[in-house]
Amino acid sequence: MRSMASARTERGSVTLETALILFPFLVVVVAIIELTLTLAAQEMLDSNTARAARELSVGGIIGTNNTTAATKVRDLVCDGGLMVMNATRCKAELKVGITAVSGTGTIPRTVVGGAINSAAFTVSVSPNAILLVRTGIAVPKFLNVMSPSSILDTGMRFLTSGAIAKLDPYAEYNKNGSSVAPSF
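^ thats the sequence. predicted structure below, dont judge the formating
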């Protein structure tokens, strides 16, 4: 038979081994959960931004000003649902940029030095140009399991998405039904 001292030593070693294994295991589980939530939110942001760009390209910005165009994109992205927050909070925090792009221009980074770059989210609607529609939103972060370049000084992760839109030349005709069709 084993002595009481031997049984106590074995119990102590089992506790120690469990503690040594449990902490790394829990870190991996939390990392997997965070990665899953972040990737799901990123996919939803990408999908909703692409949907908003499609809406703009089929005449969603005809006759609107910059503020109205940005609000339209914000509504389309947030009403499509983001897994990490409700639509009201999304509309308050979503950054929207709509800019004309050309082959010679540069596209500014969304996060510079741990802060959101406001130059990346300007709104300048030009109906006859190719438009870059960008969206971005800060979401909570627990571990650094993804790109550190998207981490803000506030400790939040900044998810961004972009899509290209070009106004359909028949959009106004299709929208109103009475306008003169464009000639080429």
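Strands lie at 95-101, 111-112, 115-116, 130-139, 157-166.
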